Amino acid sequence: MDCHTNVTPLIVQDWQLSRHYQMEIGCDTCHQGDHSSAEDVDQLATITADTCGGCHAERLEQFSKGKHALSWASVQAMPTTHALPMALNAGMKGCTGCHKLGLKDEATIEQLKADGSEFGHASCDACHTRHTFSVKEAQTPQACQTCHMGFDHPQWEMWSSSKHGVRYLLMQNGTLPEGTPAPTCQTCHMVDGDHEVRTAWGFLAVRLPLPEDDPQWKADQITILQALGVLDPAGNPTARLDVVKAADVARLTKEDFDRERNKMIAVCSDCHSKNFAKAELEKADALIRDLDHLLAQAIREIAGLYQEGLLVKPESYSYAFPDLLTFHDAPTSIEQTLFEMHLKHRMRGFQGAFHANPDYALWYGWSEMVRDLQEIKEKAEEIRHRAAERSD
């Protein structure tokens, strides 16, 4: 404290506001190792989720089962991540700014530490900010805002402008009395503080088994899975499916899906009737089906251009489908439109429905996808027309 009160005084102040300080848990409890100056700071232990698990074993076990624990693994599996400027990745200004959250093996931690990267630090402090590590902070929806906002996952914007979020914010400014029922992110996704944090549809809103009772939806989902690279042209699993499994971004059995859906119905039933909750969630399922039909048509349009030899398929694409995981690295404007259709507008459509936000479900989701599909069809027709003119 004598040193850090002068060198980093606000870190000391942060710690003195913490429960750790009240319980006489000092710096060396977590930062084990010999250290007396800036020159030997590398002798201290790197803080990880396992460090926190020494005291918080139950929370670590829950966290380890959930999607946040796999956040680092999932971003490393995305081809586009490795093409980003180092200033975005190493500087925590891009995907890794949020996806630093997640469990890492010892080799990864040591390499990150050697590179001087912040990624080696505890996943827990993404929500329980150092060095206060406040439970109350992590229980507020603002703790989720940094990561869950923006282009492909604007959950903060959806929730805060939904009736749920509006009631919470009105309670915070005193318009509504304290204790007004107003669900936050944690109310629905971290019941009783459970750190597992999973959803029925996962991040990509795809699932197995495929819907056998709806042939059109099944065909559309197969097309989407092929464009995600997890099914080959014959509909067989690929090596990328193993990556999807490892990153836990989709439910791959009916039992797994039903378990997460039943958890959510139970949460909704605290305020609504069970029948109402089931019906609203099923409406959102149906919207996914309709959004999938738009997206699948667009994928097939571009795949058709590949097959006709009118659009050059990048060598990195494994099969005769556009690769939805290339994101902004897609090489042509028609493929860029597909990228936005999938990652921006489809996400907003189905996430808006589940977050009870009409504008996101309709205007930022469904409506935009209708326009995307029309644009892709017109661009495809222009490409075919130009090719016909050249052949004449």
Automatic annotation (TrEMBL):
Pfam family membership, one: Multi-haem_cyto
UniProt keywords, alphabetically: Coiled coil, Signal
Coiled coil regions in record: 281-308
Lineage: superkingdom: Bacteria
Name this polypeptide is given: Cytochrome C
Organism listed in the record: Ferrimonas pelagia
UniProt lineage: Bacteria, Pseudomonadati, Pseudomonadota, Gammaproteobacteria, Alteromonadales
